[in-house]
Amino acid sequence: MTKKIILIVGTIIVLFFSAFVLLKIQQNKINQAENTNNSSQNTSLVKATESTKLNGKIYYISYKEGSLEINSYNTSDDKITTVYSDKDEEYKIGKFGNFTNLSSEFLATIKNSNKEKLVSFKFNDKADMHVLREDFSISESFAADPLGKEIYYSKEFITDSETKHNLYQETRDGKNQRLLYQANAPILDLSISIDGQKAFFTQDDNRIIGLDLNTFEDEQIYKTGDKIFDLSVLSNGNLIFTEANEKNINSSIVYLINLKTGELKKDLSLREKMLSSAIISPDMIATGVVQKNFEDNFNDMQTGELSTIRIGSDKINTIGSGIHIICWKP
Hints:
The chain crosses the membrane at residues 5-23. InterPro entries: WD40/YVTN_repeat-like_dom_sf. Keywords: Membrane, Transmembrane, Transmembrane helix. The structure is a single chain. The chain is an alpha+beta fold. The chain has one domain: 6 Propeller (Neuraminidase), CATH 2.120.10. The chain is built from 1 helix and 24 strands. The strands form 6 sheets. Strands 3-2-1-24 form a 4-stranded antiparallel β-sheet, with no helix packed on it. Strands 4-5-6-7 form a 4-stranded antiparallel β-sheet, with no helix packed on it. Strand 8 (141-144) and strand 9 (150-158) form a beta hairpin. The longest helix has 50 residues, at 2-51. It is globular. Mean pLDDT is 86; it is low at 3-48.
């Protein structure tokens, strides 16, 4: 009787163990199949992304024979067209402002030996330039709201006792000036939010500040131990900027900040080049940058390599030489 019970128990144990082994084998086959499918889907996604052609035109500034040009690069056929040159102009392109997303204008200054003007460029087959202010001397940074109706600019004021930096707002024609903000540090990389409700700028080389244009309340959006350059607002409303290593300015990272969630996301990085005036394509599949190599300090007028890099890829497509990217239009 005892032997019979032992035999039955042993048989049950063997059957249970065999079922467990078979179950594990089957599960492994299912997992392998799922991994194969996922891998296939991911490969298809990468291939689809890499095979997708870039669209739109990149407008940028470059040097040619001692003059500044505004060029357009057509991403679909790799054609470069010069839409403006100051070669034969009395007034030369001076400082760069922003590109207004809704009125589609690029703000800049033009200057001769003793006078500076505020102008806007609209891009078609050629760049149509319009003078907004006959006398516009700026010491720090300037930008327009997305509609191009309000002009914002920062200036430095030095007295016997202190130095202050003021942020002003005026209408397009220079009227209705109001002081928005005052600080002890320069107000740089000025940009205006898509809804026109906030101004963003950098201070102390390492902070991004957001200023509510209705309440005048300011908040620190981001702070780093390194240095921040080329802050701007993207067409989707988020911020993009370059963070360079404090000890090696040519080691840099392009970051994106989602202003709704506060999420900080790394877009791309290079250890040997400064990624200047970065911008994202309208379809959000590529980044445009000017790669610059500085021997010493940052210089926004230095020439570098205008390049496009697909998001998620390390392949760099070099287009030519450039100084500053204005916009990437659909």
